[in-house]
DNA sequence: TAGATTGTTAATCGATTAACAATC
DNA sequence: TAGATTGTTAATCGATTAACAATC
């Protein structure tokens, strides 16, 4: 059990810290103070220190934070020190785009298989990753370790397939379908990527921006 | 000028209301109370009423909200009553996936062109949408109305191209590159979709979930 | 040691929830 | 009219910022 629940607001900021620290590391920066980092990231130094202290004291008074150490610690917090196998359900454009995206592997996320219902895609490979027929899903999941399922199929099918995956013991779903999944097991971790929602937010801000001029 | 600034927390929830109201509309539901909606959406009725009243009184005491009316009003708030032309910079897998995604058009977002540096893609079309070479960007933007530019190129190139777009008068950027853009004009609206960040959040919650067991 | 900067407590601010009068 | 439900004010809760003692 976690000592105290850490808010999602904090969690949402962690990958961003990780990204900035990665850049600093690449630039050969050895240490950084919360103040310097706050200027780069456009947040308050106070928030950085509060956020990090949710997980432990990673800094040193009078010195600041060691970039490499902090980078690695945040990596551990985010679970990047372990490999995650991902299967992608829906081998359409988005599914294939995910499979082609190499950067995920650097973070320990490996796409191991794609699934689709379209017979034309049977046996086709994307960057060496095989597209299976959806009815092979059960067999595949029994024979392979699968940590995450990415759902890129139409929203009408999402609930049914998601619950099929839950029954197969999947623990996490990365949901690109434009619905809020209704799962039989509430313990399954779900992360939504709703592109249309994102576009609507953008659109709202465009309208607002025009009004302000 | 807007009366009072509406928080991004509220804005983030609006597309979700829109989605649920759309579903109700499809199901032929005529009216709904904040209480019934709150149960479906797993939020408090109070929050729904507060959120909506940022924009106006759309309901009626003793009756609730008219689904069709509210759906359309939220659509207007989100700017979905006007057409938005999108160009996509980077015609790789993700760029092509966006171009292929038909649902955006129902919301008024039309992808009109793709751009890439790869000569092999010159003249290729995706769902009838032409891929242009990147050096045609200036000419294209002068001859066509472009409301939004979606950036799907590698992060190293993102800042340079984003600022090229800003100089061409683009007002909004939908950024899929894994960086925070550093723009010369801070008035440009930016909406980030950081897929790696999303994956890291998912990964954090997987780790947490395991610990809690 | 003196200076710098953290970790942490306290103060402030904002967002969410509760309550209820207004009113359909 | 009586019942239902909004719009809105007040209360609570949580997140952010400020301040500063601890300490490297």
TrEMBL record, chains A, B:
Binding site for NAD(+): 90-95
Keyword Iron: no
Domain CoA-binding: 79-180
Localisation: Cytoplasm
Domain of life: Bacteria
Main location: cytoplasm
Residues annotated to bind DNA: 16-55
Keywords: Cytoplasm, DNA-binding, NAD, Repressor, Transcription, Transcription regulation
Alphabetized Gene3D superfamilies for the sequence: NAD(P)-binding Rossmann-like Domain, Winged helix-like DNA-binding domain superfamily/Winged helix DNA-binding domain
InterPro entries recorded: CoA-bd, NAD(P)-bd_dom_sf, Rex_DNA-bd_C_dom, Tscrpt_rep_Rex, WH-like_DNA-bd_sf, WH_DNA-bd_sf
Gene Ontology biological-process entries: negative regulation of DNA-templated transcription; response to redox state
GO CC annotations, alphabetized: cytoplasm
GO MF annotation, one: DNA-binding transcription factor activity
Assembly, per entry: Homodimer.
Similarity comment: Belongs to the transcriptional regulatory Rex family.
Function, in words: Modulates transcription in response to changes in cellular NADH/NAD(+) redox state.
PANTHER family: REDOX-SENSING TRANSCRIPTIONAL REPRESSOR REX (PTHR35786), REDOX-SENSING TRANSCRIPTIONAL REPRESSOR REX 1 (PTHR35786:SF1)
NCBIfam families: PRK05472.1-3, PRK05472.1-4, PRK05472.2-3, PRK05472.2-4, PRK05472.2-5
Listed name of the protein: Redox-sensing transcriptional repressor Rex
Organism annotation: Roseburia inulinivorans DSM 16841
Origin organism lineage: Bacteria, Bacillati, Bacillota, Clostridia, Lachnospirales
């Amino acid at each position: 059990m976690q000592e105290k629940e850490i808010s999602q607001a904090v969690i949402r900021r962690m990958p961003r810290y990780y990204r900035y620290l990665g850049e600093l590391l690449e630039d050969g920066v050895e240490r950084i103070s919360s103040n310097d980092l706050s200027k780069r990231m456009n947040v308050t130094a106070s928030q950085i220190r509060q956020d990090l202290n949710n997980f432990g004291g990673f800094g040193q008074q009078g010195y600041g934070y060691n970039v490499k150490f902090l980078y690695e610690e945040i990596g551990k917090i985010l679970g990047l020190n372990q490999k995650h196998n991902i299967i992608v359900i829906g081998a359409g454009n988005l599914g294939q785009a995910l499979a082609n995206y190499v950067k995920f592997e650097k973070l320990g996320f490996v796409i191991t298989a794609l699934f689709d219902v379209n017979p034309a895609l049977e046996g086709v490979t994307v960057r060496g990753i095989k597209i299976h027929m959806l009815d092979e899903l059960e067999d595949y999941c029994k024979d392979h370790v699968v940590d995450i399922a990415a759902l890129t199929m139409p929203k009408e099918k999402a609930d049914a397939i998601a619950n099929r995956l839950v029954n197969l013991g999947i623990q996490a779903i990365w949901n690109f379908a434009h619905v809020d999944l209704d799962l039989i097991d509430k313990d399954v971790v779900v992360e939504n990527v709703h592109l249309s929602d994102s576009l609507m937010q953008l659109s709202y801000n465009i309208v607002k921006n025009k009004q302000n001029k």
